[in-house]
Amino acid sequence: MTIGKDLAQRNNVIRAAVMGANDGILSVSGIVIGVAGATTDSFAIFIAGFAGALAGTVSMAMGEYVSVHSENDAQIKAVATQKAALANHYEQEFDFVKRQYMTQGISADLAQTATAELMARDSLETTIRERYGFTQHHEISALAAALASMISFPLGSLLPMLAITLLPVHLRIPATALAVLVALAITGFSAAHLSGANEYKATGRNVIAGIFTMIVTYFVGTLIGA
């Protein structure tokens, strides 16, 4: 296994783990705060949270597995398509790569030379990279992503479940909400950092999503419990 593939695998597992934890926090906090708006029964709140955590764990793991598998299948299909294209229309593929370099500001002569060298070295790799934007043999493990999500989702869900059931009744909702928002800020920042996005905007969006979720579910819970 190459260093590039090792790095891609590691980043994918970390991404799945962070997103799994984030979804566990967000989903289960919405459930338990909604139920807490309807009843003060700690056992009922805990059971609702546990059911949501169990369902979310299975759903997230299967979602990761199917998503990553689909991406890998699409890459395999693209490789097969490109092999056929090179076998039957090599000159067209050569011209496509050359045009790609020219659109980046490279002169026609230099683009011709670069294309000729790269196509001679590995025409399949070159055309796949330019047409589809990925590198061969860097498929991500769907199983690893699913396992990371399966572990991290319930771990994330523990925070709101424990806070809402263990704290005194008069503190449980505001204290749980505060703990959840801090946790969402951490996971939002981490996810953005891994993906190269703006950390502060992503953190803000994640926190706002948490606030909105908890307000809506609490309001619905109070209506049902009234």
Automatic annotation (TrEMBL):
This is Integral membrane protein. One of its GO terms (molecular function) is manganese ion transmembrane transporter activity. Keywords: Membrane, Transmembrane, Transmembrane helix. Coiled coil: none annotated. It is found in: Endomembrane system. It comes from the Bacteria. Pfam families: VIT1 (PF01988). The keyword Mitochondrion does not apply. The chain crosses the membrane at residues 12-37, 43-62, 140-167, 173-194, 206-225. It is a multi-pass membrane protein. One of its GO terms (cellular component) is endomembrane system. GO terms for biological process: intracellular manganese ion homeostasis.
